[in-house]
Amino acid sequence: MKVLILGDGATGTAAVEEIRRVDAGSEVVMIADEPNPSYFRAALTNYLLGELTDRQLQAVAPDFYHRHRVKRFFGRAVQVRPEQKQVVWQRPDGGQSVEQYDRLIISTGSRPRVHNAYAKYMHLPWVRTLRTLVDAKEMEDRLQQGLIQSAVVVGGGPLAMEWVAVMLRRGVDVHLFLRKKQSLMRDVLDGVARDLLLARMKQEGVHVHIDEIQHIKSDASGNVVEVRGLKSSVKADFVGLAMGVEPNSECVADSGLRMHRQWIMTNESGQTTDHYVYAGGDVASIRERGSMGLWGPARKMGILIGRHITKQTVMTPPYTHYFATRLYDLDCVFAGQLHIEGAEVLAQTTPNEGNWGYRRLVIHQGLLVGFL
Q1: Quick one: DSSP state of residue 102?
Q2: How far apart are CA 268 and CA 190, in angstroms?
Q3: How does DSSP classify residue 62?
Q4: What is the full DSSP assignment across 9-44?
Q5: What is the pLDDT of residues 123-172, one digit of tens each?
Q6: Which of 267, 277, 276 is nearest to 314 (CA)?
Q7: How many CB atoms lie within 10 A of CB 154?
Q8: Distance CA 223, CA 318 (A)
C-alpha cells in the first residue's frame, strides 16, 4: 500500500506515527510546501517573545522522516484526481509532477485571510501576516535592528492579541484597530471578560481604535508611513494583519469531493466522500461542524486517520472547542459553548492577587457545556 500525505503539520505527522506503529511495509510519501520540518505554528509568537528557540519550535525530531521511512518532497499540491488516484504537485523549479496513491491524506492546513480592502497593500514590504517560520524570522530580524518603532495590528482574534503583546514586549508603540468592540476575541469572550481585557491592554499602553482602516500610506520606497481610518490617523512603519485563516483547499476544487463551504467534508473517521481519501486539520470539516483550527484536535485526527487506514480500532474524535492563552498577566481559558439559548449562566468576578478575575459557567439541561 502507498500512502500519500499532503502537508506535514499536526495531522500529517501524527498519521505517519500511527501508520508506522503497526505497518512497517507500506510506502509513505509526503508533499509539503514548507522548506522547514514540521513546527508548532501556534508558538511563533512565543518565539518572537523570546520564550522559545528555533529548536524548541520543532514539532518532530531531526531524524523523524528518516526514522519513519517517509519520502518527503518540498512542493505544493495543485490538483487531486480521485478517479485516477493521482495528485498533481508543483515543484520549486516551477515544473509539475504526478504522484500515485492507494490512500491519500489531505492535511494542507490554512493560510491567513486577507480581506479585499487590504489585498491591494500586500505588495508593501511591511504589511504582513504571521503564519510561517519565515514570517517570524523576518520580523525578528527587523525588530532586532530597531526598524519597527510604531506598529498597527488589525484584528481582534487570539493571534492579534498575542501579536500586540509581542510588540509591547519589544518596545514598540502599538495601535490595535478593531471594527467594533465586539470583534475583540468574538468567539471566546463575553462582554465582562472583553471589558477586562480592553482595560488591561490600555493599562499596558496599547492604543485601541474602534475604527475601520481606509488607507495605508507608503513613501516612494514602499515603506509604510501612515495608517488612516474613518476616525483616526496613525504614524506607523509596520502593519500586521491578523483577520483569521482560510483553508488551503484549492487542490480539490475539481475533485468531486463533497465540500462544506471551503472545507473538505469528512465523517468522524476523517474519511471524505471518496473511500480512499481522508482529510484532517484546518482544511477539514467533520460533518459540517467546521474546523477548530487547533493543534491538539488536528493531531488526534491524524492518529484516528492512521488507525482507520491500518484497520485498527477507531477512537472517538474530539469535538469540544477550546482555547488557552496568556495575555499580559491574564490567563485566559475557554472551552465548549458560551452562548446557548435557555442555558443557565453562573458568573463570578473575584479579586485575584490584586487584580480582578472572572469566571463563567454555562449549564444546559443539567450539564456543564462551556466555561470561561
Answers
A1: S
A2: 30
A3: T
A4: SHHHHHHHHHHHHH-SSSEEEEEES-SSPPB-GGGH
A5: 999 999 999 999 999 999 999 999 999 999 999 998 999 999 999 999 99
A6: 267
A7: 25
A8: 45
Q: What is the mean pLDDT of residues 48-55?
A: 92
Q: Compute the distance between CA of residue 194 and CA of residue 72 in angstroms, rounded to an integer.
A: 44
Q: What is the pTM of this model?
A: 0.91
Residue 173 β-bridge partners: 150
**Dihedrals phi, psi of 57, to nearest 5 degrees:** -75, -20
Strand pairing of 245-247 and 110-112? antiparallel
Q: Is 265:259 a contact under the CB 8 Å cutoff?
A: yes
Closest CA to 150 of 123, 171, 135, 130: 171
Closest CA to 3 of 297, 307, 317: 307
**Nearest CA among 128, 201, 127 for reference residue 168:** 201
Neighbouring-strand partners of residue 87:
80, 99
Identify which of 294, 301, 306 has the alpha carbon closest to the alpha carbon of residue 316: 301
Strand 367-371 to 330-336 pairing: antiparallel
What is the maximum alpha-carbon separation in the chain? 65
Amino acid at 103: R
pLDDT of residue 331: 85
Secondary structure letter of residue 50 according to DSSP: T
- C-alpha cell read off for 287: 460533518
Place of cell 480582578: 356
